[in-house]
């Protein structure tokens, strides 16, 4: 079955995700704050561009969103010209932004009040995962709405799962970021140690990646970290935004995250060195500069 859908936010993630919906035959209308980006999308794919989130959402059965942070999400949903002002009764808003669990619950409640569904569905897999249609999607929200949205999310996902009620998707993404922060710091220290010990770090990685130390980060980032190249993935500025949500939630639920808090400060050092747009594997840089 093909649907009238819209996609709000055409960054490095949203642009290809919306493209997969179009290629699957859905009738797609896009909105982006920078109109030229929406124009480029219409050139690359079959669909239409809207002049506002509200116009994009009008008549859509499913509205997808992937913007920057809590404030960005509120601006494209509940502001006067936001999507919520034109959402059809019974429609579904699927938010792929990584946000706080608080804003997800807030918008879920507002959507319920207005007569449509809201699900929080942050993703993992980065730009490459979006471009290759291989994202992992962590979902929170009402079972019925999640089930209805599932076949469309499959257009660009290799894995999706509902983890619970509203906010659960965002909490699961926080778990994901905690794991990544610790893994990247550990890998950074290991490669730094190997270099200082006079070892061929790439040869060492080739051996240990066949054993218990193996990880996605090692397989995909070790070689570029050794080469000092940091333009391959998720930016430090965005990771610090995400870890801010993690640490804020931990203060509320009583979780103890000493390593995550420390790594957040290491990322702050990378930002101070001018590396805010470097990818997250740049945690090795402060060690090498010491």
How does CATH name the architecture of the largest domain? 3-Layer(aba) Sandwich
Estimate the helix proportion, in percent: 40-55%
CATH homologous superfamily name of the largest domain? NAD(P)-binding Rossmann-like Domain
Major sheet size, sense and barrel closure: 6 strands, parallel
Query: What's the shape?
Result: globular
Description:
This protein is an alpha/beta fold. The chain folds into 2 domains: 4-165, 3-Layer(aba) Sandwich (Rossmann fold); 171-289, N-(1-d-carboxylethyl)-l-norvaline Dehydrogenase, domain 2. It contains 13 helices and 9 strands. The protein has helices at 14-23, 35-44, 53-57, 70-77, 101-114, 126-131, 143-153, 168-196, 201-208, 216-226, 236-253, 258-272, 284-289, and strands at residues 4-8, 27-31, 48-49, 62-65, 92-95, 117-120, 123-124, 135-140, 157-164. Strands 3-2-1-4-5-6 form a 6-stranded parallel β-sheet. Helix 8 (168-196) packs across helix 10. The protein is globular, with a radius of gyration of 20 Å.
SSE topology sketch:
Blueprint: E1 4-8, H1 14-23, E2 27-31, H2 35-44, E3 48-49, H3 53-57, E4 62-65, H4 70-77, E5 92-95, H5 101-114, E6 117-120, E7 123-124, H6 126-131, E8 135-140, H7 143-153, E9 157-164, H8 168-196, H9 201-208, H10 216-226, H11 236-253, H12 258-272, H13 284-289
Parallel strand pairs: 1-2, 1-4, 2-3, 4-5, 5-6, 8-9
Antiparallel strand pairs: 7-8
